[in-house]
Design brief:
The protein is mainly beta. It folds into two domains: about 15-120, OB fold (Dihydrolipoamide Acetyltransferase, E2P) (Beta Barrel); about 120-200, OB fold (Dihydrolipoamide Acetyltransferase, E2P). It has three helices and ten strands; from the N terminus they run βββαββαβββββα. Strands 1-2-3-5-4 form a five-stranded mixed β-barrel. Strand 9 and strand 10 (about 180-190) form a beta hairpin. The longest helix is centred in the first third of the chain and has 10 residues, at about 50-60. The chain is globular and about 50 Å long.
């Protein structure tokens, strides 16, 4: 069974920001394996932190000289500085129950079978800001709907792209492509339209 690195959503209003990137991970030093850079095939460096579960995989299975497909959570404060959190490593042979019929199997073709590709991100959340001049949008993601009161559970992503101001405060599902340190909108779907705050106040 081929394991999907970015699972299908289980709930229509499920919020998330998750992606897959092929590249080499270079830690800042042997003493600090959990912080470093992910260097993609074009030589672009992205600041990266490896989360707990992935860290044990990294220590046991990963050859730092090789490229892997990394399952990552994106964070940023603007469109120029992307920060990644590694949640896992997608390797159909080493890390999944996938028969190793041929070591030459093309990973990118396997990804295509899952309707995915390198540098693809799935972002689902509330559209909270639209900058028509800069052609940027901001999506607010709440990692756990039950924990809305906890501030650190909410974060915002700045994405290059254009959406109508009329969609503000709507719940949207976005297909995103990473370009260098920027996240760019490819496609979007409005899952649930919502009243703007002004309208709510009047009501």
């Amino acid at each position: 069974m081929l394991k999907n690195p970015i699972p299908k959503v289980t709930n229509q209003l499920q919020q998330r920001a998750i992606g897959i990137i092929n590249g080499k991970y270079t830690p800042h030093g042997t003493e600090q394996l959990n912080k470093g850079f992910l260097i993609d095939n074009k030589g672009e460096k992205i600041e990266t932190v490896v989360l707990g579960k992935a860290l044990s995989l990294l220590k046991k299975h990963i050859d730092l000289k090789k490229s892997y497909y990394w399952i990552v959570y994106p964070k940023n404060k603007n469109t120029q500085n992307l920060h990644l959190q590694v949640a896992g490593i997608w390797d159909p042979y080493q890390l999944n129950d996938f028969p190793n019929d041929s070591a030459k199997t093309n990973f990118s073709k396997l990804l295509e079978e899952l309707d995915l590709k390198d540098n693809y991100f799935s972002v689902r959340g509330e559209l909270v800001f639209v900058n028509t001049q800069k052609k940027e949008i901001v999506i607010k993601i709440c990692s756990d709907l039950k924990s809305k009161k906890l501030k650190n559970k909410n974060f915002k992503l700045v994405i290059k792209g254009e959406l109508s101001l009329e969609l503000l405060h709507s719940f949207v599902s976005l297909d995103i492509n990473r370009d260098g340190n920027s996240l760019k909108l490819i496609n979007y779907e409005v899952i649930e339209k919502s009243l703007s705050k002004k309208t709510r106040m009047k009501a």
